[in-house]
Amino acid sequence: MTKLIINADDFGYSKGVNLGIIEAYKNGVVTSATMMTNMPGAAHAAALALENPDLGVGVHLVLDCGRPVSDSVPSLINENGDFHKIDGLEKYAELSDIEKEYTCQIEKFLSLGLVPTHLDSHHHLHGHKKIYPIVEKLAQKYNLPVRKVSAEQGHSSNSNLKMVNYFNHEFFGDDLTTELFIEIINKTLSYEISEVMTHPAFIDESILRGSSYALQRVRELTILTSEEVKEAIVNKKIDLATYKEVSHQSLV
């Protein structure tokens, strides 16, 4: 039977995002989430995670949204103390500061009373050829699986880390439909275990002002809780899973 992890990114961004993810878990098909431990909603997300222990929760490593967890990573921040945008990161970021900040984010997650299931990153920055070795090192240190990144991004072999067989990031954008999500599910059927990335949320002021991807998240939530999607997963005999099952597998 095909195993499928449906992961909700950005857990911890805000209360609206957190509550939308929990709705998609309780009344939809989301099985997993990854938390931005540097964002204002992190403590609220952790409380929700503790109330819902069967939701797999990992760490959504962040370098380009909000502020750092560490109080001493000067190359990662602008004059206001916020993370640089991606172009600023490429110009100023020092690898030692990236490793320090990523470590602090994982340790903050642990301090909230949670055990992480895996690592991924905001805007897929862990796939950057200079950043990937840091994530590989931390994944081995904490014994965690990592979201699969494509070979085209120039990083080293994935053979040292536990990953799913297939990762799909296509459920994103302005034209999302139930049919599209079911098409994405169909792409996972030939693999033993896969992950599909999602971003469900209820909209609040924080996400409306802070993210260019806001109203689309409500559409995602509607699709992820739809009866059509639930029925498709049952009919296709898909076993919904979390990264806990990847942890117990041999290296992919």
From TrEMBL:
<dbReference type="InterPro" id="IPR022948">
    <property type="entry name" value="COD_ChbG_bac"/>
</dbReference>
<protein>
    <recommendedName>
        <fullName>Carbohydrate deacetylase</fullName>
        <ecNumber>3.5.1.-</ecNumber>
    </recommendedName>
</protein>
<feature type="binding site">
    <location>
        <position position="122"/>
    </location>
    <ligand>
        <name>Mg(2+)</name>
    </ligand>
</feature>
<keyword id="KW-0460">Magnesium</keyword>
<comment type="subunit">
    <text>Homodimer.</text>
</comment>
<dbReference type="InterPro" id="IPR006879">
    <property type="entry name" value="YdjC-like"/>
</dbReference>
<comment type="function">
    <text>Probably catalyzes the deacetylation of acetylated carbohydrates an important step in the degradation of oligosaccharides.</text>
</comment>
<dbReference type="GO" id="GO:0036311">
    <property type="term" value="F:chitin disaccharide deacetylase activity"/>
</dbReference>
<dbReference type="InterPro" id="IPR011330">
    <property type="entry name" value="Glyco_hydro/deAcase_b/a-brl"/>
</dbReference>
<comment type="similarity">
    <text>Belongs to the YdjC deacetylase family.</text>
</comment>
<keyword id="KW-0378">Hydrolase</keyword>
<keyword id="KW-0479">Metal-binding</keyword>
<keyword id="KW-0119">Carbohydrate metabolism</keyword>
<dbReference type="Pfam" id="PF04794">
    <property type="entry name" value="YdjC"/>
</dbReference>
<feature type="binding site">
    <location>
        <position position="60"/>
    </location>
    <ligand>
        <name>Mg(2+)</name>
    </ligand>
</feature>
